[in-house]
C-alpha cells in the first residue's frame, strides 16, 4: 500500500509540475510551434480537461490561470495529502 501511495504522490506531483510549466510558458508568450511548448500544451490540456471552461474570466491571463491553475492546485493538494498520509 505504501508503494501505491508513493507512486500516486509522484504522479500528482508531476502533473502539478507539467501544469505549472505550461502556465509559465503560456503567460511568457512561448512559441506554440515549438515542439517542447506543444508537448507541454498537449499534456496540460489533457490533465486539465475536467476543469477547463469551469470559469469564463475576461482576458487570456485570467483564463489561463483559471483553466490550468485550478487543476494544478488540486493535483498539488493531492500530492501533499498523499505525502502526509504516507508518513501517518
Structure description:
The protein is mainly alpha-helical and 88 residues long. The chain contains 3 helices and no strands. Helix 1 (2-27) runs antiparallel to helix 3. The two termini are 13 Å apart. The mean pLDDT is 92.
At a glance:
The protein is mainly α. Helices cover 76% and strands 0% of the residues.
Percent of residues in helices = over 70%
Structural class: mainly alpha
The low-confidence parts are: none
Q: Count the helices. How many?
A: 3
Topology diagram in text:
Blueprint: H1 2-27, H2 35-47, H3 60-87
Helix pairs in contact: 1-2, 1-3
Kindly list the characteristics that best describe this protein.
mainly alpha; about 0% strand; about 90 residues; globular
